[in-house]
Each structure stands twice: as structure tokens, then as C-alpha cells.
UniProtKB/TrEMBL annotation:
Pfam families: Citrate_synt (PF00285)
GO BP terms: tricarboxylic acid cycle
Organism: Rhodocollybia butyracea
Stored PANTHER family: CITRATE SYNTHASE
Region called Disordered, residue ranges: 1-21
PROSITE patterns named among the record's database cross-references: CITRATE_SYNTHASE
Keyword Transferase in record: yes
Stated name of the protein: Citrate synthase
InterPro entries assigned to the protein according to its UniProt record, in alphabetical order: Citrate_synth-like_lrg_a-sub, Citrate_synth-like_sm_a-sub, Citrate_synthase, Citrate_synthase_AS, Citrate_synthase_bac-typ, Citrate_synthase_sf
Gene Ontology terms, MF aspect: acyltransferase activity, acyl groups converted into alkyl on transfer
Active site annotation, chain numbering: 335, 391
Cited Gene3D superfamilies: Citrate Synthase, domain 1 (1.10.580.10), Cytochrome P450-Terp, domain 2 (1.10.230.10)
Similarity annotation: Belongs to the citrate synthase family.
Bias type Polar residues, positions: 1-15
Length: 505
């Protein structure tokens, strides 16, 4: 504090509070400054200033929507949104998509390095071995209505799953269950990781089947992660049933691409929830709820609904005009981080080609193409650097994409549609692989140096200042003129007009 010193001025920020003339020197570490450093800048309130500003208690840092706030030191995923770079633990996503598998990448994301062959074998065996859920779970799934949104089912199912494992619950076993760093603590943590990744496909497949009125199937042995998932959704008693290998592989690539995306809304929600040291099942359920929203994982569903509502390429110009007037929402465009091409889009493009060769193309494609072309020429979108995001492009075929764009939401939607998944199941196909990323971030937070700090942000209170309670006019009226009717609760106009025993009209 005070005047900046020569040694600290090299890699530091000097801030002068013009209210008081006070100067603070804040160290810069990894190109960031701690927000708490501003707490020392307090001042006397200005004349008439609201006491709720708490000006004497130090300066607050406001950042609605976390536009420039780093909440973790992380070693997991790096995104350069301007350059279109995405790396998991240092490996470019393109290389992983080409050479790795979803489960191998999951190991990498969670534990920090690629597994050796024996490690991979143990890991895959453990995850697949934990796919089975207790037979009781059937009742849980059957309690949902036939038309329940599968994300509502999946979100609830993750929380429900936690109820089986009292040994995994810090509320029952002690707060330091996951933060101790002891061999026992690691073992408990690993087991919940196997269970959550292993059972994610099972829960999702059960959510799928309950809506189709189908019986549930036991997870098969001898199939890959996505092969088992497809089997659990589609098997109807056929002999030697095997999912189509092109679809199995395509799903595996899409899962790998969706496995993590740094501190997006759902990963942040998992950490926010996990920061109270709640069990990982509850934290994953919270992440799942966050992902469900149409600004995040629900976008791939929203894109298809939007394309259906546009109807044909001829309606695209009118639709875009409505978007610019903010009367309509253009789903699948824009991203908080990517301002250029989403590196995943090129892989998705290739995957889309492979899938469409097997399934045929989607009739929404022409509308999607027209929308893309019109938007990319339009000043409104160019100025705001709004390009199709990952969810948009999942609905396209490669021939459309000479793109220098950020693009996968659209494509995922069309690939999933081509594969015959129901629209509302698309976010589930995003949530299942994202369990991996959520767990990687959760594990990292549990083991971070210095322990877990509960995430408790500040607010800027702009509501009413202190005021005295005054009884409402209705309450006063009721006191002076008691009800004439011998019934409980508020009397509606309809009741006043009704006739019944005891009514005094
Ligand atoms: N259509 C039209 N205008 C848009 C769009 C869009 N899809 N997205 C952003 N804008 C405008 C926005 O109105 C604002 O304009 P102005 O400066 O005139 O007020 C400007 O672009 C900046 O947008 P923003 O809302 O400040 O950007 P953000 O970083 O807060 O939001 C976003 C990012 C992804 C929520 C947003 O772009 C959006 O709502 N997109 C549509 C939903 C979508 O596709 N979501 C999937 C994201 S990718 C997958 C994932 O990560 O889950």
C-alpha cells in the first residue's frame, strides 16, 4: 500500500483512489490481479449517498455475468477464442479427435496426462463396470410422465443417484472426505468418478426409454462407451444386436469434443455448488440443470426448433430482420469466448459427412445454409463478430463450410436429428459427455492448494433503503371489516357471487 515501490512497479498495477488520494500497488500474477486488493480502498460516503453502498467498508469489484473475472487457477482446458484454439491439458482438440477416444480423453482431462495402455484398460473397465444401476431405479424413472423433458429426468436422476452412496457424502462422512489428499480419500473420489461417468449413459438411456414406453435393458458387456449407450437406448430383443459402427464412432467423436469447455456456465455451476462441499452427485445435477438452458447446452435443441419455425430459405430474410429488431432469437450464433472459428467445427464437419453417408441428409439443411449465408453477410452480425457456434454447425454438412467461423451447435443438432434422436434429447447428448469435464473441474477444486473456499459473491444492493413496516390497506380493511363468510383464505369475486350455506349476502 502507499506509493508504488520500484521493485513492485515492474509487474504490478498502481491504483489511485481519487476520492481519498490513496494509492495502492497491486501485484500482477499470471496477468491477473486479486479483486480483494481493492477492499483497502475505502472512503467517507458522499453527501446523500446510500448507506447500502457500504463505502467505508472498501471498494467492490462488479462483474455482471463474469465478463472478466477469473475464479479458478486451472490446468485443464485452454481456449483462445480469438485464434480459435482449444486444448485439453495442452493437447490440441484436433489431435485428440483424430487419435484418441472419449474415455481416453476423459482420463486425460480428469487426471492430467494420457494413460498408459494398462492404465487405460483399468480405467475403461472401471467406468464400464460401473454402468449398472440398482433395480430400484426403475421405479424412479417410471415416476415421470411420458412427456417429461429428458433433461428434467436426467438432472433429477443424478441427484437421485447420490442417495445410494452414503459413503460418498461429506454431510455424512465428514467435510474433508474429498479434500484430504489421502489414499483413502483418492479412492473414494475415484469411485464416484467411475460411477458418474459409467452411469451417465445408463441414466440417459433410461430417460430415453421411459418416454418410449420401453422396458429398460442392462448395460451390455463388450461394447465401447458409446456403443453401450446406443445399445441401451435401442435394443429391443434382437439376436446379436450391435449398433452401427459409423454412428458409434461419430457419437464417440462428438462426446470427446463436448467433454470440456473450460469454465462455461455449467462447469461454473458445478464448482459453485461443489464449493459448499456437497457430494459430487448433487454438484453434477446442478451442472446438468445449468446446461439445460437455451443459452448453453439447450441451444442445439433451440436451433432445430428455430429452423423448423423459419420453415424454408425464403423466410430467412424476414427472420433475420426480426432478430435485428430483437423480436426473435437467433439460436446457435454467438459465443462468449469464440470470436472466430470454433476449432471443433472442422471435426464436426467431417463427422457430419460420415453420418449423413449412412443416414441421409436432413431437410432443414437448405434453410440452415440460407440462414448462415445471409447472417454472415449482414453488417449487424459482422460488427458484433457473431458467427455460428458449435451447436449451430452440428446441423450442417461439410460442403457448406468453407468457414472461418465458430461453429458446432448447429451441426450437432442436424447430426443428432439425422441419427434419429428426438429434439429434446439433444441437450442430453451434450450433458452425458460433459460429466467428464464437470468432474475434472470438481476434482481439481477439491485438491487445490489451500483447500476449498466457498463461492460467495458480493452484490450491489440497489433496493429500498430502510423503511418502517406499515400494515397494508387490505389488512387494515380486513381488520375493521371482518369476513362475512365462514371460509378460509382470500375470498374471490366468484365466491362473493356464489350461494352456499352460511353465506350472508
Ligand atoms: N443473435 C443476435 N444477436 C446476438 C446473438 C444472437 N444469437 N448473440 C449475441 N448477440 C448480440 C447481443 O444482442 C449484443 O448486441 P448489443 O451489443 O447490440 O447489445 C452483442 O451481440 C453481444 O452479445 P452478448 O449477449 O453480450 O454476448 P454474451 O457473451 O453475453 O452471450 C451467448 C453469449 C452465447 C449467450 C449469446 O451469443 C447467445 O445468446 N447466443 C444464442 C444462444 C446459443 O447459441 N448458445 C450456445 C452457445 S455455444 C455452446 C455452449 O457453450 O453451451
Amino acid at each position: 500500500m502507499g506509493q508504488p515501490t520500484p521493485s513492485s512497479s515492474q509487474n504490478s498495477l498502481t491504483v489511485r483512489d481519487n476520492r481519498t488520494g490513496k494509492t495502492v500497488d497491486i501485484a500482477i500474477e499470471d496477468n491477473s490481479i486479486p479483486a480483494t486488493a481493492f477492499k483497502v480502498l475505502s472512503a467517507n460516503p458522499e453527501k446523500g449517498e446510500r448507506e447500502e453502498n457500504e463505502t467505508t467498508k472498501g471498494l467492490r469489484v462488479s462483474d455482471k455475468g463474469y465478463l472478466n473475472t477469473a475464479v479458478m487457477r486451472s490446468e485443464i482446458t485452454f481456449i483462445d477464442g480469438d485464434a480459435g484454439v482449444l486444448r485439453y491439458r495442452g493437447y490440441p482438440i484436433e489431435q485428440l479427435a483424430l487419435h484418441s477416444s472419449h474415455l481416453e480423453t476423459a482420463y486425460l482431462l480428469i487426471y492430467g496426462s494420457l494413460p498408459s495402455q494398462p492404465q487405460l484398460k483399468v480405467w475403461e473397465d472401471e467406468v464400464m463396470h460401473h454402468a449398472v444401476v440398482h433395480a430400484d431405479a426403475e421405479q424412479f424413472f417410471r415416476s415421470f410422465r411420458y412427456d417429461a423433458h429428458p433433461m428434467a429426468i436426467l438432472t433429477s436422476a443424478f441427484a437421485y443417484l447420490g442417495s445410494y452412496y452414503s459413503e460418498a457424502n461429506p454431510s455424512l462422512q465428514g467435510q474433508s472426505l474429498y479434500t484430504k489428499g489421502s489414499p483413502e480419500s483418492f479412492a473414494v473420489m475415484d469411485k464416484q468418478i467411475y460411477r458418474l461417468i459409467g452411469k451417465a449413459t445408463t441414466l440417459a438411456a433410461m430417460a430415453y426409454r421411459v418416454r418410449q414406453g420401453r422396458n429398460f435393458v442392462t448395460p451390455p458387456t463388450g461394447l465401447s462407451y458409446t456403443g453401450s449407450f446406443l445399445y441401451q437406448m435401442d435394443y429391443l430383443g434382437e439376436e446379436n444386436y450391435k449398433p452401427n459402427p459409423v454412428l458409434e464412432k461419430a457419437l464417440d467423436v462428438l462426446f470427446l469434443l463436448h467433454a470440456d469447455h473450460e469454465l462455461n456456465a455449467s462447469a461454473t455451476t458445478v464448482l459453485q455448488t461443489g464449493s459448499s462441499l456437497v457430494d459430487p452427485y448433487s454438484a453434477i445435477a446442478a451442472g446438468c440443470a445449468s446446461l439445460y438452458g437455451p443459452l448453453h447446452g439447450g441451444a442445439n435443441e433451440a436451433v432445430i426448433r428455430m429452423l423448423i419455425s423459419i420453415g424454408s430459405p425464403a423466410n430467412v430474410p424476414a427472420f433475420l430482420e426480426a432478430v435485428k429488431k430483437r423480436e426473435k432469437v437467433l439460436s446457435g450464433f454467438g459465443h462468449r469466448v469464440y470470436k472466430t472459428s470454433d476449432p471443433r467445427s472442422f471435426i464436426v464437419r467431417k463427422t457430419a459427412d460420415e453420418v449423413f453417408r449412412v443416414t441421409g441428409k436432413d431437410e432443414l439443411l437448405e434453410t440452415a445454409m440460407a440462414l448462415h449465408e445471409a447472417a454472415m453477410k449482414d453488417e449487424y452480425f459482422i460488427k458484433r463478430r457473431l458467427a455460428p457456434n458449435v451447436d449451430f454447425w452440428y446441423v450442417f454438412t461439410s460442403r457448406l463450410l468453407p468457414c472461418k467461423l465458430n461453429c458446432s451447435v448447429l451441426r450437432s443438432g442436424l447430426i443428432y436429428r439425422a441419427m434419429g434422436f428426438p429434439l429434446d434429447f439433444f441437450p442430453v447428448l451434450f450433458a452425458v459427455p460433459r460429466v467428464v469435464g464437470w468432474l475434472a473441474h470438481w476434482r481439481q477444486m477439491m485438491l487445490q492448494p489451500g483447500g476449498v473456499k466457498i463461492w460467495r459473491p458480493r452484490q450491489i444492493y440497489v433496493g429500498e433503503t430502510k423503511r418502517e413496516y406499515v400494515q397494508s390497506m387490505n389488512a387494515l380493511r380486513r381488520k375493521s371489516r371482518p369476513h362475512r363468510y365462514p371460509i378460509l383464505g382470500e375470498i374471490t369475486k366468484r365466491t362473493m357471487l356464489a350461494t352456499f350455506k352460511g353465506a350472508k349476502l
